[in-house]
Amino acid sequence: MSRTVYKYTVEVLKKVSFNPKLFKRELEKASKKLLPHEYTELMIWAKNFKFQNPTNYNDQEYYNSVSYTHLTLPTNREV
After folding, report:
1. By CB neighbour count within 10 A (0-12 exposed, 13-18 middle, 19+ buried), where does 4 fall?
2. Beta carbons of 69 and 61 less than 8 angstroms apart
3. Residues whose CB falls within 8 Å of the CB of residue 35, separated by 6 or more in sequence, listed in order
4. Taking the alpha carbons of 3, 66, 69, 76 in that order, is the dihedral positive or negative?
5. Cα separation of 27 and 36, whole Å?
6. CA neighbor of 27 nearest in space, from 78, 68, 72, 76
7. Long-range pairs for 4-7 at CB < 8 Å and ≥24 separation?
8. 13 contacts 26 by C-beta, under 8 angstroms
9. Which of 43, 75, 71, 74 minimizes the C-alpha distance to 59?
10. DSSP 6-73
11. Residue 20 confidence (pLDDT)
12. pLDDT (tens digit, 9 = 90+) per residue, 19-68?
């Protein structure tokens, strides 16, 4: 089931990629929904997507500002 959430998140990110603020907001939402290894995979995907589709994204602003503190806490799926 969690792969479904990952795939859905990727589709949403593709659709909002025209707007860097929406893209960042969706990355932040994903950080709360996905499991730690899925989120890591998503960040790799997002960086590759940005490299293949260069726009006015700022790496510092859009990739480093997401909080990683939740990654050490168990999720509902892990409990």
Report:
1. exposed
2. no
3. 2, 75, 77, 78
4. negative
5. 13
6. 68
7. 5/33, 5/34, 5/38, 6/34, 6/38, 6/41, 6/42
8. yes
9. 43
10. HHHHHHHHHHTTT-HHHHHHHHHHHHHHS-HHHHHHHHHHHHHHHHHS--S--HHHHHSSS--GGGGS
11. 87
12. 888 999 999 999 898 989 999 999 999 989 888 877 655 555 555 555 55
Long-range contacts of 6-11 (CB under 8 A, 24+ apart): 6/34, 6/38, 6/41, 6/42, 9/33, 9/34, 9/42, 10/42, 10/45
Quote the tokens at residue 78: 């892990």
Q: In the block, which residue shows the tokens 């969690």? A: 2
Q: Which residue has the tokens 């509902």?
A: 76
